[in-house]
Amino acid sequence: MERKFAVVRWSEGEDFGKLSDIKTDVIRGYDDSKMDQDGNPFATYSAVIEWRHGKKQRGGWPHYRGTVIFVSATRFETIRKLNSLLKEEEPTELTKRASVAPQKYGDDSDCSTDIETQSQQAKKSKAPRRTDPAEEFLKLYGQSQPSSDNHNSPTQTVVELKQEIKDLKEENAKLKEIVLQDVPGLLLSLRNIIDSAAPPKRSRVEPTKALPALPGSPPQSRSSSPCATSLSLPRSTLSSSTSVSPSLTASQSSKVEIHPGTGVMVEKLAWAYAINANSATVFVRHLLTAVFPVEILLVSNLRGNKRGGGEARQPLDKNKLDAIYSATLEKWPGTQLSSIGSTINAKITELRSKSKNVGVHTAPH
Fold it and tell me: What pLDDT digit, counting tens, does each position of 132-162 carry?
């Protein structure tokens, strides 16, 4: 048989702490599996209940939270349960004042004893007074502080909290200053890599020095011109010679993986600089220059496509790109993949522009 009636105790609202008998259909999301066969809950069953008292408002009945105590298939059972609960919560009846014999018929000692007994019974019969939660909080935490003036303890607490906030701000400023001290060195290293990646243009008047022959290549005759010797050197040799620098070799011992399982490692300083970025775009830009050498970025783009009549670019390493995408989505969830790709191409275009400007400034006029 379906149990349609329930006894609830209101946890909030105008009937806070009171008991009511209601229908189970006014209990939002009522779950009968939480009640046993006798109608009692297995555990404390708290739910949101419609408070149908008075006139129905325009927006509907108000909802308050309450605890389901008992359910039954008949209202008779719920009323009987409600009456038993109310009878249990009724305060004990006050004991009748004991009769006291006139003073002239008894001793003074007996009279005093009766008066004391009467006062004790009156004290016991009084219902316990509900204390203010704020007063209990102040008594509990105000006495725990070793202060002679209890009324000054809240003020002292506010002062201590303000001082703690000030100390935390100073510590945060020091940490930012420590991070910013390492950033100029990183920018200088990037500038040196960009400068070394762009081959300087030589004038016709300036004599060119012959470059050393590559290992395994046939020896060149002295009659060959220096220009021919310099042109015979492959571009890959230039890129490899510029990519291996003492600063990068020395920092290989302090690297971190940008995303677990990818095997893509970057310098710890570059990683710290990237994770302190305030947006996904800045994060991708920093991570791109940390993962790929600049000389690789200058001759590549995201997918290796060819734009217009320009030369075809080399595609970037797919494993490293996937690591950058995964690290970005982990740090900035919800970032669109197209936005990450656009940021990578924009950064590569910016590096090419800077490389051309460096080449123009280094060329003699």
Answer: 777 777 777 665 554 444 445 788 888 889 9
Q: Is residue 106 part of a domain?
A: no
Same domain, residue pair 69 and 194: no
For residue 327, the domain's CATH number is 1.10.10.2590
Which phi and psi (to 5°) does residue 228 adopt? -65, -35
Residues 6+ apart with CB under 8 A from 61: 26, 50, 51, 52
How many other CB atoms are there within 10 angstroms of residue 313's CB atom?
19
Interatomic CA distance for residues 313 and 303, integer angstroms: 8
Q: Which of 69, 88, 107 is the last residue of a domain?
A: 88
Q: Which residues of 30-61 are buried (b: 16+ CB within 10 A; e: fewer)?
A: beeeebeeebeeeeebebebbbeeeeeeeeee
Domain count, the chain: 2
pLDDT tens digits for 4-25? Answer: 899 999 898 888 888 888 888 8
Q: How many whole angstroms separate alpha carbon 235 and alpha carbon 73?
A: 89
DSSP states along 164-212? HHHHHHHHHHHHHHHHHHHHHHHHHHHHHHHHHHSPPPPPSSSPPPPPP
Tally DSSP H helices, then E strands, for the chain.
12, 8
Q: Final residue of a domain: which of 55, 88, 121?
A: 88
> What range does the domain containing 290 cover?
177-201+225-362
